[in-house]
Specification:
There is one protein chain. The chain is α+β, with helices and mostly antiparallel strands. The protein is built from four helices and ten strands. Helix content is 14%, strand content 27%.
Length: 214
Amino acid sequence: MSRLILFNKPYGVLTQFTDADGRPTLADYIPIRSVYAAGRLDADSEGLVVLTNDGSLQARIANPRHKMAKLYRVQVEGEPTEAVLQKLMAGVDLGDFITRPCQVRHIAEPDGLWQRTPPIRYRAAIPTTWLELVLQEGKNRQVRRMTARVGFPTLRLIRWAVGDWTLAGLGPGQWRELEVSGQPDPKQRVNVANATKRRGVRNILPIHKRKESR
């Protein structure tokens, strides 16, 4: 039986289960060791990490050739114009590679946004702007490098969705488990809405949170 976990990764947590330096990892939140992350998310980024015990499903999610869209909500320093957004959409030369065309738009601050720990830096004289980016690739620190390249450094980065899976209903440090029978069709990926009652959907608080409440 394939298993699928959606996890809202907090800032500062590594997308791995062990760390020799004792930094926070997935093991501090998810008490399941038979799954692994389908694609990484930097420690200083937040949001959706998909985990599975199915190797072919993991490859389908993580490999850029399958073109599974990743949606990011990004707070940048400054106020990028439409011309700047067009540059991001057309592809940005980062030196070692040119990014693929993508979707970018201005958005309001996301509803229900949680406080980040530590908070981002604010400068009274410099405004900030929220953008939504949809990429079909995900190279190392790509979003941060893209916005910096066009003159608007990223202050906060949240991955909201991977394909049809989203953070809906998940607070930071919470995870939802779906048991998936067989391989999902790429056009009908399993998500919360079509998961059966038998499979179940659970919102689980982080392990360390439960320990603190005792």
